[in-house]
Amino acid sequence: MTDSTYPIGTPGTKWNDDDKAQWLASQVIKRSYQDEVLTLINELKGTLTVEQYGELNYNDGCYPLYALQTPNFDDTKPTVLITGGVHGYETSGVHGALRFAKTSALNHSKHFNIIITPCISPWGYETINRWNPSAIDPNRSFYENSPAHESAAVMAYVKSLNLDLLAHIDLHETTDSDNSEFRPALAAREGTTNTNWNIPDGFYLVADSKKPEPEFQKVIIEGVAKVTHIAPSDENNALIGVPQEQFGVINYAARQLGLCMGFTDAPFVTTTEVYPDSPSANSEQCILAQVAVIDSALNYLRNEG
């Protein structure tokens, strides 16, 4: 289905600053980063190292950015990065990262150093938005001199640690609002005609086409299948218009597209896509699916190592 209409901008013309200001003025705070995210981070201070790595100052408020680390980093252990909330509206990415931090991180820390940035885009979390206030998608902005403060802050933090990463797992969702709001808004911003995609009913993974590691992806899919259903491909053997590489897995050119999973040199990377709008899933299942991804990935890496 295609729909080229959007209430902001002129069809066929890229947004100017006035259009972006109009879009920003239409955004409203719908939930609390302080109450729903920072409270949970504070509860982890007794077991994990909590470090503020940055701060975002927007008209709606000041948003401190936090990373969690397993205690007693050991240079002899490999290091794994978990990122959530790059798209703030993708709720289970944020809360899956926090649930893993609460329930599993210490157990895995026997074998790995683990870094978790649970909510990279807190303004997006509060406004249930894919973009930041400048109408920039942080998950297309992971490159040098990034225009997205959210992306720049976490990249600078990870670089400052001066660590070689073994793996990077980025937690996301695909939602019905992709078609109802975010893809039409993107087309309007770019002055193009929107083409909606067929949203898969279920969980899938996006691997990096430059380092797909198919067995790594396969093991993750098998782990998640114990928690929630895996998305079947469409009649073209594709998911969101991209050819399926194996059951539940597609590949993207991560670094070329400026995706979060592409900004490090970690050899094992993946992006999760949970579908919270499925009639066959609920919010708790979605959170547990994100945890299952991390657990399955780390178990695989430990056994392979």
Question: What does the secondary structure layout of this molecule look like, with pairings?
Answer:
Layout: H1 17-25, H2 33-43, E1 49-58, E2 61-69, E3 79-84, H3 91-103, H4 105-108, E4 113-117, H5 122-127, H6 149-161, E5 165-171, H7 177-190, E6 204-208, H8 214-224, E7 238-239, E8 242-246, E9 249-252, E10 268-273, H9 283-304
Parallel strand pairs: 3-4, 3-5, 5-10, 6-9
Antiparallel strand pairs: 1-2, 2-4, 6-10, 7-8, 8-9
Protein name: M14 family metallocarboxypeptidase
Keywords: Hydrolase, Metal-binding, Zinc
Domain Peptidase M14: 29-305
Account of the protein in words:
Belongs to the peptidase M14 family. It comes from Pseudoalteromonas marina. Keywords: Hydrolase, Metal-binding, Zinc. This is M14 family metallocarboxypeptidase. Its cofactor is Zn(2+). With 305 residues, the protein is an alpha/beta fold. It has one domain: Aminopeptidase (3-Layer(aba) Sandwich). Helix content is 34%, strand content 19%. It contains nine helices and ten strands. The protein has a ten-stranded mixed β-sheet with strand order 1-2-4-3-5-10-6-9-8-7, with helices on both faces. A hairpin with a 2-residue loop joins strand 7 and strand 8. Helix 3 crosses helix 9 and helix 8 crosses helix 9. The longest helix has 22 residues. The model has no long low-confidence stretch (mean pLDDT 96).
